[in-house]
Amino acid sequence: MAESNATSDVVSYGYEGEVALVCVDNPPVNATGIAVRQGLVDAFKAINDEGKAKAIALYCAGRTFIAGADIREFGQPRKDPSLPEVCNALEASAIPTVSVIHGTALGGGYEVALATHARVALKGAKFGLPEVLLGIIPGAGGTQRLPRLSGIPFTLDIAVSGRHAKVEEGVDKGAIDRVVEAGDPRDIAIAMGQEVIAGTLPTRRTGDIDVTPDEAAINSTLAMVEKKNPHLINLAECVKAIAASTKPLMEGLAEERERIMRCIESPQRSGLIHAFFGERAVSNIPEAKGETRALDKIGVIGGGTMGSGITTSCLMAGIPVRLIEVQQEGLDRGVATITKNLDGAVSRGKMSQDKRDAALAMLEPSLAMEDLSDVDLVIEAVFEKMEIKKDIFGKLDTICKPGAILASNTSYLDINAIANMTNRPQDVLGLHFFSPAHVMRLLEIVQGEKTAPDALATGFALAKKLKKVGVLAQVCDGFIGNRILGHYGKVISYLVLDGASPADVDRALEGFGMAMGPHKVGDLAGLDIGYMTRQRRKEEGLPANERYGGDIADLICEREGYGRKTGKGYYLYETGAPVPNPAVEEIINEVRADKGITPKTFSDQDIVDRYMTAFISEAARVVEDGTAKRPVDVDMVFLFGYGFPRHRGGPLHYADSIGAKELVARIEAYAKEDPNYWQVPDLLRKMAEDGTTFADMNK
Ligand code: T1G
């Protein structure tokens, strides 16, 4: 223990002269689990009872000041003292108190600091109230005390965005009292306690300060959150809790408590916390650990959309890239795209101009594949044609140095077939990026039969360097994401064939939380991509009794165009905003008539149910056959690669809210219309019999 008197196994206190020191030491981030809460209350009580101190300084051991409530406790039975009670006890201390902040004082951590009588931070530290990112709101006084120090507008900014602010900004806003040069938090705690005693560091109870009302800020923020995130109830709850800060503190705290409880009980909280832990869980696997190879220099083959996006991502992470193209025109185009991407990052405030210049200076364009002889890893990002890839990997086999990793960005081709074009299949794997590759965070890391463990672990190390979410996938057509998309994409065409309009489907799925309905996405991406895939599959011969759903889309491509880029697709784009294309309705009626289909009516819920049941059934099969390691891996693929609504947690987290029994019943009912498409996965049937959940499989 850092101090001599332990009040729990993670909190201790001691004295340096007339300064009492309270230390929290609860790795990894000093989250306020019950032992921290009880320890703090007991420490502050003991120091006040002993009366030996004239100031109390609270600091933390380890990498950071308290980074929040222990998220793992959510959904569990509550244990007192609650964090609000801890904060009230600290604020009530008769002996003046000061918090010393280092690392990230977030959520409940910053709320503890707000309840002390002054806040001093080490240079470089950050603070924030990111609870809304977890589907809840600050629930230990943050919505009530921060307005007392910094006003309602700043509190709205910090609490509704969930952003981490620099402590220097906090000083400007009164949210932090002082920033000191970095040093040992305990030493600074002693010095600040002495300053409190000397009166050179003023202290006051935050709760004693009045709040200036600001109806305009409250109402404009309410309007903004209800427009921007109509699905997230917690944002409006957060704004309304902040509005209550004009009441006496205890009344405001009571309202804040009532509002956070509403959020904690919502499925959004469960989905967002699943997303928080899932993002970390997917790389917390044996395959991602252990020996890795060098990643000092990367080669990218192909300067098209993907190749330039991947190159941009590597350059932004500070990794030099040699970009290879076969012709000068293509190479110039790639360099221009990369330059545009980097300039975009500067204009979006994602990187400084200096960093952008340094990144661009690490780009070495070349027309000679031989220039890849010294790179540590090559990422091939050329056309999705197996012959081209085999030819490239055959050449790389002789050009690249021993131990260099040879990766393909293919989105569905067989990595094993590519690996077998080399004498070093142990160095080959798939690194499947998602467009735009310098923005989308998902990276599917595809393990070949012979991929060496250190090569695979290097794939995860690259994901971490690029700040991407690396998910392990086994080889199959489409790996995890595109394989599941390939299945649920069919139900969308079946719904339109059987009676729904494209606009009905888009509206229903946008109501479910998708950022954009599938037909608008198709128009945006270009309908020609799907058209070519369908023609390829038809040439290869469709599976015998599969219902072909592409007639309508084929005719739209042949008669109307490819969507936004040609001005016409499912929608018309004359005015910019998408308007349903009347010609599409005629095509739909024509195809239905040809097929003798009598259109049915589908409610928005019917559409969501069919879509998600199809989605979940293929996702279950992907887990069942081991293509994905666990359900959480599938969830993260769709949160970080396909825009699945984050507050739903992912398709299989959402599946648990329906239950395996209901899902099996739905599939059996739908199977009466199409027994080939609607088949109950064995895993789901077993879950229905055993009463188990996908969450059980994540443990
Ligand atoms: N509770 C439990 N575990 C946590 C945690 C938390 N709050 N924060 C992080 N961890 C674990 C994480 O799962 C990982 O575990 C390890 O710590 C390192 O995290 C009443 C109710 C602090 C910026 O939202 O933003 O307070 O994988 O890998 O990249 O109003 O963690 O090693 O087993 O992310 O350096 C509000 C959430 C909670 C902060 C550090 N607080 N955490 O990032 O490391 S709600 C938050 C973070 C609340 C009150 C309400 C980040 C970080 P493992 P890491 P990092």
Helices and strands in order, then pairings?
Elements: E1 5-6, E2 11-16, E3 19-24, H1 34-50, E4 55-60, H2 83-92, E5 97-101, E6 104-106, H3 108-115, E7 119-122, E8 126-128, H4 142-161, E9 165-166, H5 167-173, E10 178-180, H6 185-198, H7 215-228, H8 233-243, H9 249-264, H10 267-281, E11 298-301, H11 305-316, E12 321-324, H12 328-347, H13 353-361, E13 363-366, E14 377-380, H14 386-399, E15 405-408, H15 415-419, E16 428-433, E17 442-447, H16 453-465, E18 469-474, H17 481-498, H18 502-512, H19 518-525, H20 527-540, H21 551-559, E19 571-572, E20 579-580, H22 582-595, H23 604-624, H24 631-641, H25 651-658, H26 660-671, H27 682-690, H28 694-698
Parallel strand pairs: 3-4, 4-5, 5-7, 6-8, 7-10, 11-12, 11-14, 12-13, 14-15, 15-16, 17-18
Antiparallel strand pairs: 1-2, 2-3, 8-9, 16-17, 19-20
(2S,3S)-3-hydroxy-2-methylbutanoyl-COA binds near residues 29, 83, 106, 111 and 140.
List the main descriptive attributes of the protein structure presented here:
single chain; alpha/beta; 2-enoyl-CoA Hydratase, Chain A, domain 1; Rossmann fold; N-(1-d-carboxylethyl)-l-norvaline Dehydrogenase, domain 2; 3 domains
